[in-house]
Amino acid sequence: MAAGGGTKAAGRLYDIVVFGASGFTGQFVVEEVARTAAAAGEGQLCGGPLRWAVAGRSREKLRAVLERAAERLGKATLGEVGVLLCDVGDAGSLAAMARQTRLVLNCVGPYRFFGEPVVEACVENGASCIDISGEPQFLEGMYLKYNEKAAEKGVYVVGSCGFDSIPADMGVLYTRDKLKGTLTAVESFLSVKSGPEGVCVHDGTWKSAVYGLADEDNLRKLRKRIGYAPVPVVGAKLKKRGFLFYNREFKEYSIPFMGSDASVVKRTQRYLHTELQETPVQYGAYVNVGGLGSVIKLMFAGMLFLLLVKFNFGRKLLTKYPEFFSAGRFTKEGPTQKQMEGASFTMTFFGEGYSEGQDPQNGKPNVKICTEVKGPEAGYIATPIAMVQAAVSLLEDAASLPKRGGVYSPGAAFSKTKLIDRLNKRGVEFSVISKPEV
């Protein structure tokens, strides 16, 4: 494989280590790495075989995960895969892991509690690091603390490399690249479909949401400390929509998306504007929630959640009984295989801008475009695909990464790489729905 992520393959036993491989999400990431390694063995990656390992606290559990992955791929074994014993509470074991690999895929969350020791070990020991955090406070905190050090070491720390940030962040860039002219604003609408078995998410994601909403004040303080330069508004200002509105395009109700997408996209746009002098794109993220019955249920659940999340006792209740408080959407067991097979997502992007030769600082936008990112079940099929293809891009497309190492959002790290092509080949598909209308 090409040297990438700022570290030469020489002296490193592995290209990739999956940390937290026996966790709920980690096992699906292992499966996806195994698929990619099989493709590498067939010469589909530049330099031949992908050398990889799994890391976690229990050798037995790690072996069981490798056996399950082999079974899912219809193989007797996965061949040579390293097994590293490593604990997030043991800095020495994290350093030993980081020294052996070019890139760590960190699957151990909530990241606000367990993420920083892994980032620190990677940066100190010259390994790049990718995670699937949807927690803005963790992501931006890592930027504040480790961006300069990572740049010095020539390593890349890229957060939010799962669903929904990769579809959102790369979807905005895809929309921009498909518009002939200057894209100035985009709104995205997420629709999640479930099969007859319904939809369900593992409660690790629920915990991240509980702690994230409880800590919004500290996020504001953190942003003040970073001292972000304001991103200029180019073109007509994108209007913010209300908390709940009827969406004529989809014939259902929509609400603002509560995840990290808006902050991730904003970080990417700020980077592309300040470092590459590209026109920044304004962004609004929304999710479609269905008809009036769904809206009423959601509003009751949302009010209860926002009330409980403010108190320590309430947070304990929310994290102890996720199934009850989420009306069965979040469970400690996570989704069944059947639920995953029946689920899918679509993220639709409506962009507006100015045709070639038209000055975005004057007049109203005069072109529109609609694009889409579609994929399989979001949490445990699309997320591992996004994470592993981001890893391959980091290792393979080294010449297209930002010149300096550092702590990046996905769009900032991967805007010039082949990540979208790679995702398309693995079933997370980017397409233009309607060409620009003038």
UniProtKB/TrEMBL annotation:
Coiled coil: none annotated. It comes from the Eukaryota. SUPFAM superfamilies: NAD(P)-binding Rossmann-fold domains (SSF51735). The chain crosses the membrane at residues 283-309. The keyword Kinase does not apply. Keywords: Membrane, Transmembrane, Transmembrane helix. GO terms for biological process: glycolipid biosynthetic process. GO terms for cellular component: lipid droplet; mitochondrion; plasma membrane. Belongs to the saccharopine dehydrogenase family. This is Saccharopine dehydrogenase-like oxidoreductase. It comes from Atrichornis clamosus.
